[in-house]
Automatic annotation (TrEMBL):
Keywords: Membrane, Transmembrane, Transmembrane helix. Residues 5-133, 146-273 form the EamA domain. PANTHER family: ACYL-MALONYL CONDENSING ENZYME-RELATED, SOLUTE CARRIER FAMILY 35 MEMBER G1. It is found in: Membrane. It comes from the Bacteria. It is a multi-pass membrane protein. The lineage of its organism: Bacteria, Pseudomonadati, Bacteroidota, Cytophagia, Cytophagales. The chain crosses the membrane at residues 7-24, 36-53, 65-83, 89-111, 118-136, 142-162, 174-196, 202-219, 231-250, 256-275. This is DMT family transporter. The keyword Transcription regulation does not apply.
């Protein structure tokens, strides 16, 4: 089966994000904001170095949107890391994967992308899966559920801003603005709640930064190559990675109904991707026939 460039980029991004999740989950002794400091610092340095080597200005063109993307991403990531350290890995990932729903819905207003009524039905299916998981997993409090949904909302907002910037900015400039905005915000808080990493924790923090840099770059490329609703849903595959890593590394298990809920989420996103692909092909065929 042929996979478009945007789809391949998103799959690679998803694998890197999943490995990053494992490292964050493992760093239970380090506060979430401190992990973000290290992650952002590494991303800041790598992005600046590569942009300088390619002779591309780090400041970009549309600074207001770039700052907005950085701010939305900073809020989303801070909340996500907070929940990731407190609930099972696969559950945290599943909550975060409501982001494609918010991405597509916000896309109606921000990038003027049209959605079919069928896609809204598929989104409702995915959200129903989230409710099933919440109902049968006592480890998830209402507070953490709301925070997970809020993180997904801001992630969806950030993805749409990336889409708005797809023709005016270099992908690494968009990535660069994330740490540029995030570092000042989280560094001040972390300075008063600092926990010095020990031993292998330094290496794990480095891994978080490097994996995130790779994941962010290819996610940005994916959104620039394809329509939002087609590639955003592929991030749901991280649920499978989360289940596997959670079981093998953190000895996390779930009851039958929680697995059903996760399956329902996956069904919703797979149907959405299939429908969007079919709809695009049909549109192209119609245009050619005219």
């Amino acid at each position: 089966m042929y996979l478009s460039k945007g789809v391949r980029f998103m799959l690679l991004s998803g694998i890197c994000f999943s490995l990053m999740n494992v490292l964050v989950k493992y760093l239970t002794n380090i506060p979430a904001t401190e992990i973000i400091v290290f992650r952002s610092l590494i991303s800041f340095i790598l992005s600046a170095m590569i942009l300088r080597r390619q002779n591309v200005s780090v400041w970009g063109n549309n600074k207001k949107l770039l700052i907005g993307r950085g701010l939305a991403g900073a809020i989303a990531l801070t909340i996500y890391f907070y929940t990731l350290q407190r609930i099972p890995l696969a559950t945290a990932v599943t909550l975060q994967f409501l982001a494609p729903v918010f991405t597509a819905i916000l896309g109606i207003f921000i990038v003027k992308e049209k959605l079919s009524p069928w896609q809204f039905i598929f989104f409702l299916v995915s959200f129903a899966g989230i409710l099933i998981i919440k109902g049968f997993d006592e480890r998830i409090s209402t507070e953490l559920l709301v925070l997970g949904i809020l993180s997904a909302f801001f992630a969806g907002l950030a993805y749409n801003i990336v889409r708005k910037l797809n023709t005016s900015e270099h992908p690494l400039v968009i990535v660069f603005y994330f740490p540029l905005v995030t570092l000042p915000l989280v560094s001040i808080y972390s300075a008063f709640h600092w926990v010095t990493p020990q031993g292998i924790e330094w290496l794990l923090l480095l891994g978080v930064g490097v994996l995130t840099q790779i994941a962010q770059y290819y996610m940005t490329r994916a959104f620039q190559e394809e329509s939002i609703s087609k590639v955003a849903g592929l991030k749901y595959l991280g649920i499978i990675y989360g289940l596997g890593f959670g079981y093998l590394i953190f000895d996390e298990t779930f009851n039958f109904y929680t697995y059903v809920g996760m399956a329902v989420v996956l069904v919703g996103v797979i149907l959405n991707v299939w429908y969007k692909t079919w709809s695009d092909k049909r549109k192209v065929a119609t245009q050619k026939s005219e």
